[in-house]
Amino acid sequence: MYVEGISAVACLALALFDGWFTRRRLRKYGHLVELNALAQTNPFLATLAPTIVGVSVALWAHWDLLLGVILGARLLLATFQLRSRETERQLDVVRRALPPLTPFRHKL
Hints:
Elements: H1 2-29, H2 37-41, H3 43-60, H4 64-97
């Protein structure tokens, strides 16, 4: 029973991390970086709702395999978030190195 509880808490913590990271990215880069429409409006609901439903079903049915699959998926998504952060840092370095863009003005 302790393993299931720890796994459930880990799943929810990873979902919160995913929601926090998505919200941070939306604030920094705008709504076009997220394809999920629900995540654009409420990233915590978009990550927590499916996790809570899945974990609840797994605990209710005593289905440890489902809980393990959800935990693995959450770990994978957290890894994706950390990798995307590395990419965003590299893009920020490139963005700072470029001169500011000015509108094109054609002279005749």
